Amino acid sequence: MKHKRILALVMVMAVSASAFAISAFAKETTDSSASGETAVTQEQSSEAKEKRGKKEKVEEPENAVGKDAAKSAALKDAGLSEDSVEKLKARVSKTDDGTVIYKVHFTANDTWYSYKIDALSGKVLDKSTQTAEEHEASKPQGGHGKKKKVEEPESAVGKDAAKTAALKDAGLAEDGVEKLKAHVSKTDDGTVIYKVHFTANDTWYSYKIDALSGKVIDKSTQTTEEHEASNQQSRKHKSDGSETSSDGTDSASSRRSGRNGDTAKTAENQTAKSA
Predict the structure, then answer these.
(1) What number of other Cβ atoms are within 10 A of residue 134's Cβ?
(2) CA 143 to chain centre
């Protein structure tokens, strides 16, 4: 009888030990599985972040015309030769509707040109122009999309004096103009200036006034219609800063916009020479 009790006790202890071992194994398996899932989730999250940080590379189609042909098409449209331009570059991109294009950029005669060339047909889809100075000013600085603020020198003549100098040169009174504005800027050689703008008699005036001497450094005029057209082109160009950009309208419309920019540039050069 005594042996039977001992045997029963041993069996109970063995069953308890087995149950404990099974419970511990199950817990270890669950913890390991949870850790594995967490690791996978973290890895997936890391990969997603990495993908978001990189722009999707656009593949060049096998039957594309090629970057050289795209450059030639842009230069031909602009009426320029390759040896007369600078910073000529082309890269593959894509519009919002999925059209693969070449973005071609170059500078010539103080003008910055931007073209979108269809990668398959080699046709000009869109184009825009800016003065080289406007293009440099539109570039983001400091890596945060903000333009670097130009400090006004302590010995500067002041915005009011700059406005007065511009109005005097134009032969106009302050009450005879509209949208009179002045802001501090800087030329490519580092000279601090005031940029003064105003409109009068359907004409848009732009002046550069030396911040220290108050003298007129440069000036240009456009009709208000031409100025608005060039502004639209500038805004459109800024919106094209991302990899995918809106597809242009018909080529004829783009050519008209380009001619407006060229006309404005010609008027600016003629006015500067007369000054």
Answers:
(1) 14
(2) 11
Residues in the chain: 275
Among 202, 237, 201, 203, which Cα is nearest to 220's? 203
Give the C-alpha separation, 173 to 177, whole Å: 7
What pTM value is reported for the model? 0.37
Nearest in space to 245 (alpha carbons), one of 130, 145, 128, 116:
116
E strand or H helix that includes residue 209:
strand 203-210
User: What residues have CB less than 8 Å from 106, skipping those under 6 apart?
Assistant: 71, 74, 75, 80, 85, 86, 87, 88, 89, 112, 113
Scored b (16 or more CB within 10 A) or e, 179-211 reads ebebebbeeeeeebbbbbbbbbeebbbbbbbbb
The 10s digit of each residue's pLDDT in 171-204 is 999 999 999 999 999 887 888 999 999 999 999 9
Residues in the chain, pLDDT under 70: 1-4, 6-8, 10, 12, 14-55, 138-148, 233-275
Are 124 and 116 in contact, with CB atoms under 8 Å apart? Answer: yes
Q: Given the structure tokens 């509209």, which residue do they identify?
A: 178
Q: Residue 162 has which token pair? A: 């700059």
Contact, 168 vs 146, CB < 8 A? no
Alpha helix (H) ranges present in the chain?
A: 2-53, 67-78, 132-138, 159-170, 224-239, 251-274
Q: Using CA atoms, how far apart are residues 99 and 247, in angstroms rounded to an integer?
A: 8
